[in-house]
Amino acid sequence: xxxxxxxxxxxxxxxxxxxxxxxxxxxxxxxxxxxxxxxxxxxxxxxxxxxxxxxxxxxxxxxxxxxxxxxxxxxxxxxxxxxxxxxxxxxxxxxxxxxxxxxxxxxxxxxxxxxxxxxxxxxxxxxxxxxxxxxxxxxxxxxxxxxxxxxxxxxxxxxxxxxxxxxx
Length: 168
Known about the structure:
Layout (H helix, E strand, L loop, with lengths): L3 E5 L5 H9 L7 H12 L3 E8 L2 E9 L5 H6 L3 E7 L8 H14 L4 E7 L5 H9 L3 E9 L2 E2 L12 E8 L1
Parallel strand pairs: 4-5
Antiparallel strand pairs: 1-2, 2-3, 3-4, 5-8, 6-7, 6-8
Helix pairs in contact: 1-2
C-alpha cells in the first residue's frame, strides 16, 4: 500500500519530475518545472508534489491569477496541469493532490476553477471533476484565448478546453 505525502515543490525537484515522466514516455521538459519553481517563489503559483513511499508520484498547480479570461476577471484561482504518473493512478494520489489544492485555495477564495480537455484522453479527469462537485462555468468551449461559437471549426487537441468552477 502506498503512503502518499503531499508537499510544495522544491528547487531540486524539476529534473526528478521531468525524468519520471520521461520514463513513461511523456515529454515534460525540466524547464517547465524550473518555471514553476520560480513562479512559486514569486507567489504566482503553488505547485504541490505527491510522493509515494519517497518516490515522485504526481503534481498539481494552483495559479492565483489565471490566464483564462472568465477566471481572471473574477479572481478565481485555477487548478492547472494536474498529472499523476500512470502507475499511481486510481490509488488516491490524485484525490489527495486535489484535496490539498482546494484546501489551500479556500483560504483565499470561495471558488476554485479548473479546465479540462474535451477528447477521450481527458475522460477520467472529466468524470473526476464532476464527482468532486465542479460544474461548467457556462462560458462554453475555449481555445487559445477565445470562446468558440456555433459553426466555428477548430482542431481538437490539448488547447481545446471546457472550464469548471466549484464552491469551496
